[in-house]
Design brief:
Oligomer: single chain
Shape: elongated
Low-confidence stretches: 1-26
Order of helices and strands: HEEEEEEEEEEEEHHHHEEEEEEEEEEEE
Strand content: over 45%
Number of strands: 24
Radius of gyration: 31 Å
Length: 408
């Protein structure tokens, strides 16, 4: 397993170097708007596609580096369409970088999960939240949406009346606000622009891969004098699934769900010895495991098109064993008599829910076609047992898997 780990991460490092050198040739079209109003092109240095910035590091086309705070510039734009302006929001005294999601007669702004409407004269916050209400000597939390009334006021007129039902159904989210403001501008015949139109709310991509699992067995319970040995400590597997990642407002969060199958032909040799008897057994069997891995992922590092992530989750396994040969023999020491018996003595858990962790690398994370390399660790308590007469031993398994997959 140690060797497998070293091979995996050697490959990851090599791919990071290769991808980084190719990516360095990409031309960035980010820009900043200076206090004078001049627009300067270059690169806003960032690893993930954040929706909020306190300060920015900027490199112009001449290679000069700058650190800009909100009071230093009017704003900046990113090559994916996001645009930020330096503004003073209601209830604040200092300028901050506010993302402008939509520009029009009523512009939509976003900052730290809150939304604002900017008209010709002022910026108005769209408010929503829970309020405590006393009812029958109990305190109940009720979700209030005062932003609905504010939208009705801001869109007052013929179009506001026509859109009243849509306004009342609006939820407190960037997508709902963009949708209702877009309808309003279309109805009024006004120009507008959605700056995040080309950024997907979330990316959802299928993947297909294969790999190999190495297994370490440990004792769960057994009596002294008992030994059980599996001939093979590894098995191949195939896996397909769906990867959910690059949320527009949560770029480091991701999920994946899969369906896989592992299989092997194996053998177990068992022995139990005490001063009175010697009990041995051999069973050859075919093992198949159909499983569903579910993981919550958090991205750690991203450089160019290479992203490394950590995952927490579990495996839902459905196991099946089919014995092809099984025999046991009991020898009593006082008369050296031996009794042979055919029949399976190995029992594998039919269903399992096993905790798991993983480290992964996503190559070409921003491209339509990508590659996944993952090192997964899974723990299966009391995975199987072997019974010789009335003597039963139960074993845990620690499984380390190396996965290579294509994401498309």
């Amino acid at each position: 397993m140690k060797r497998c780990f070293l091979i995996c991460w050697s490959g990851i490092v090599w791919l990071m170097v290769l991808t980084g050198s190719v990516r360095a040739q990409d031309v960035k079209r980010d820009f900043v708007i200076l206090s004078s109003g001049q627009q300067v092109y270059g690169q806003v240095v960032r690893d993930f596609d954040y929706s909020q910035y306190v300060t920015i590091n900027f490199i112009n086309t001449s290679g000069e580096k700058f650190i800009f705070q909100p009071e230093d510039i009017q704003g900046f734009g990113l090559d994916n369409g996001r645009i930020f302006f330096s503004k003073v929001l209601p209830g604040n005294q200092e300028k901050v970088f506010v993302q402008q999601l939509l520009t029009g007669s009523l512009s939509l702004l976003s900052y730290k999960g809150a939304f604002y409407i900017e008209g010709e004269r002022e910026i108005t916050e769209l408010v929503a939240g829970y309020e405590n209400m006393e009812y029958d000597s109990r305190t109940l939390k009720t979700y209030k949406k005062p932003f609905i009334g504010m939208l009705n006021i801001l869109m007052a007129g013929t179009c506001g009346t026509q859109l009243s039902n849509a306004i009342n159904r609006t939820n407190y989210s960037d997508q709902d606000f963009i949708e209702i403001l877009s309808k309003y501008h279309v109805c009024e015949g006004l120009d507008f622009k959605v700056h995040v139109a080309q950024i997907k709310r979330v990316r959802l991509s299928p993947y297909f891969g294969a790999g190999f699992t190495l297994i370490q067995t440990s004792v769960n319970s057994r009596t002294p004098g008992r030994k059980d040995v599996l001939e093979k400590t590894g098995m191949p597997f195939l896996l397909t699934g769906v990867k959910v990642y690059q949320f527009r407002n949560l770029p480091k969060i991701g999920f994946d769900l899969g369906l896989g199958m592992a299989f092997s032909n194996n053998r177990i040799d068992s022995e139990y010895i005490n001063p009175e008897v010697r009990f041995t057994g051999t069973e050859e069997f075919k093992f198949t495991s159909v499983y569903v891995p579910v993981f919550f992922n958090y991205s750690l590092i991203k450089r160019g098109g290479m992203e490394s992530y950590f995952g927490l989750g579990g495996f839902f396994r459905f196991n099946n064993t089919s014995p092809s040969y099984a025999i046991r023999d009991l020898t009593t020491n006082f008369n050296a008599a031996t009794v042979l018996e055919e029949g399976s003595f190995l029992t594998w858990k039919k269903t399992m829910v096993n905790p798991a962790v993983k480290l992964g690398t996503h190559i070409n994370a921003d491209k339509p076609l990508g590659f996944l390399v993952e090192l997964q660790m899974e723990y299966a308590p009391a995975a199987f047992s072997a019974e010789l007469g009335l003597n039963k031993a139960t074993y845990n398994q620690l499984m380390g898997s190396l996965l290579f997959a294509i994401r498309y």
